[in-house]
Amino acid sequence: MFKESPTLFTWVTCNCWLVFGCCWLTLRNRTKENVQLRTTRQRWMGFIGYCVIFVSLYLPLFTGTRLLPALSALQAAGALLCIGGIALCIWSRLLLGTNWSGGVAAKKDHELIVKGPYRLIRHPIYTGFITALAGTSLVSGGSAALIATLVCAMALYLKIEQEETLLNELFPGTYAAYQQQTRKLIPFIL
Questions:
Q1: Where are the membrane-spanning stretches (predicted)?
Q2: Around Cβ 38, how many Cβ atoms within 10 Å?
């Protein structure tokens, strides 16, 4: 079945993503009502996107082709990045609470969250997600994983622009001041 034997690091990243998925599924309906509902098509496209990402991440297990060398140090670093990224995603999601939305959407009685990782970065869920993808890519070593990571990073960066426009409309003045005190994705840098 597998052309490449899964390493301990592969299992670590798989379990991280399993925890991520369980958390997201558990919390998905525990949110405030959207001002504008997401369509069924948007939900399906999101689901399909996640499926493509995760197939891309672990493709080398089935094809046996790696772009990156299978060095233990590289894979250990990747596993640590994945653990840290998933932990940041979950912490940030829990802090957002009922204000979270899968798409760019305003919630009824929307609140601006500025505690925890939100004190330093405005989009820590995206930071964590990209970090976990990059870490998993180091573990699996596949070119499809690296491409999926880059495409996701670019797509999330574009989504950030939409979110920030919406948040500036929802919190005039307040969000602009918050933007001046924080970075988008990487503390003190970006």
A1: 6-27, 47-64, 70-91, 125-158
A2: 15
